[in-house]
Amino acid sequence: MLLAAGRGERMRPLTDTCPKPLLRVQGKPLLQWHLEALLRGGFTLAVINTAWLGPQIEQEFHGMFALQPLLDKRRQLLTQELLHLRYSHEEQDFGAALETAGGICRALPQLCPHLADGGSDVFWVLAGDVFAPDFEFTRRAIELFCVSGKLAHLWLVPNPEHKPDGDFGLDADTGLALNLPPDDPRPRYTYSTIGLYRHALFGLPWCDIPAGNPAGLKAPLAPLLRAAMDQGQVSAELYTGAWTDVGTPQRLASLNNDPVGA
């Protein structure tokens, strides 16, 4: 699932007429970098949630995305080279964005459509306004996550200048993400907004929003993660590749003007 419903207040005036995931980094919309990486990893379905200027996102990518127009003898795109796209239009359905957990709950039936028949209960979640060009979405990561039995696995990054206090701790011995109290001296890292999740995290006892979120309830993700961390149900690892939270016009300009230094 690609999270693309935010208003992008800090990016104004750029986001007054363009949704933040469509702002261009090195010639391509931010969201496209994720789509390309998912397709390279062999994934064939993505759900994108939208709110502010959401129709622009669907108009940009439509119902499928391809790296290159690789053609078979009948001049049709090869199925394995396509990323099929589905949309969850929160503003269209409810008048506003549903926050992260509310949006994921809304999209659950699309994310795990075959769960009742024994289908996969695991999916990626990533923010559409983060630039992580080196991150690899792999089947191996999913296999390891499934074996772990955990409810979520997060990729953490060294704290950027604009967020020196970070989000979560990391136990190097156990690989567990830690919900550290304020007075704990252990280091904290910033959540990259990239993670693997199980359907079960968005059900009782962690979350009381029904799958599909028919009432359009708003709910943040962090409280669910912290509660699961307290029960040892969230693992994590440190990612040190290129990563930028493209949260201000200055950071966007830095990526475009000095991509190596950024």
Please tell me about this protein's structure:
The protein is an alpha/beta fold. It has one domain: Alpha-Beta Complex (Spore Coat Polysaccharide Biosynthesis Protein SpsA, Chain A), CATH 3.90.550.10. Helices cover about 25% and strands about 25% of the residues. It contains seven helices and 14 strands. The strands form four sheets. An eight-stranded mixed beta sheet has the order 5-6-4-1-7-12-9-13. The longest helix is centred in the middle third of the chain and has 13 residues. It is globular, with a radius of gyration of 18 Å. The two termini are about 25 Å apart. About 0% of the residues have low confidence.
Distinctive features:
single chain; about 260 residues; alpha/beta; Spore Coat Polysaccharide Biosynthesis Protein SpsA, Chain A; two-stranded antiparallel sheet; 14 strands; about 25% helix; about 25% strand
Question: What order do the helices and strands come in, and which of them pair?
Answer:
Blueprint: E1 2-4, E2 24-25, E3 28-29, H1 30-40, E4 45-50, H2 54-61, E5 64-66, E6 82-89, H3 90-94, H4 99-111, E7 122-127, E8 130-131, H5 139-148, E9 152-157, E10 169-171, E11 176-178, E12 190-198, H6 222-230, E13 234-238, E14 244-245, H7 249-257
Parallel strand pairs: 1-4, 1-7, 4-6, 9-13
Antiparallel strand pairs: 2-3, 5-6, 7-12, 8-14, 9-12, 10-11
